[in-house]
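We emphasize that the prediction below concerns an isolated chain of 129 residues; any contacts that depend on oligomerization or on bound cofactors are therefore not represented. The input was used exactly as deposited, without trimming of termini.
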Amino acid sequence: CIRDSPSQFDVVVTENMFGDILSDEASQITGSIGMLPSASLAKGNFGMYEPVHGSAPDIAGQDKANPMATILSAAMMLRYTFGLLQEADAVENAVKAVLDQGYRTPDLFAGEGTLIGTAEMGRRIAEAI
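Result of the prediction step, given as a token string:
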């Protein structure tokens, strides 16, 4: 049973609704669903890349959304569709560097570090690349 021993699985294949439930639950490991990139991959190098989270209409236009899942989804696209490994590493390392510097969007902010918005997080990651 997956519940009793999840580490026995490298991959779990499921239909869309159950997969959505599992990915939402797993997001708590990272601290926020805003940190989870995803890909739906086909044979060859074709894929569709998107963050796990939805569009968050409740915070649209408020500079509160975490852009990292979208940015990390683009890194996955660079790696798996275009074979641009160094470029993908640069994007992933930039996200890590900004987090290591203590910058946090509201979903990750727990009273320590520096609280910043969507635009500032994107700008800092772009500069780090």
